[in-house]
Amino acid sequence: MNEIEYELFLSSDMKDRLRVRALKDKGEILQFVVQYEAFIETLWHPIVRYDTAHGFAHIDVMFPDGRIDKQPIYSPSYSLAFTYATQDLRGHWREYRRRYERRMKI
Predict the structure, then answer these.
(1) Percent of the chain residues topping a pLDDT of 70
(2) How far is CA 84 from the centre of its chain?
(3) 1, 5, 47, 86: most buried by Cβ count inside 10 Å?
């Protein structure tokens, strides 16, 4: 089994990052976490997380008040769900950040 783990900064000011962890065996993803975090004011805030905790692939959208909206990801495999999660967060992190900041009322 191979473990994949890395952080990728998404913005030039290094205030937006993607944290990725996955367990892979024979080319297939067995479990994963892909989380977008933003540095707002003085703290890193988890904004959106895709993972396979609880035995299924899902997305968690975090709210500033601590609520979490959990929605299943319907995918034929964890490998495809992992690819989708990574592409979604790399492509839409600005939108996720703006939405979170609006909810914070900054």
Answers:
(1) 99
(2) 11
(3) 47
pLDDT in tens, 37-72: 999 999 999 999 999 999 999 999 999 999 999 999
Per-residue exposure over 35-63, b if at least 16 CB sit within 10 Å of its own CB, e if not: bbbbebeeeebebbbbbbeeeebbbbebe
Residue where the block lists tokens 């003085």: 42
| The two structure tokens encoding residue 10 | 């998404």
- Binned at pLDDT 50, 70 and 90, residue 1 comes out as confident
Q: Is the pLDDT of residue 106 over 80?
A: no
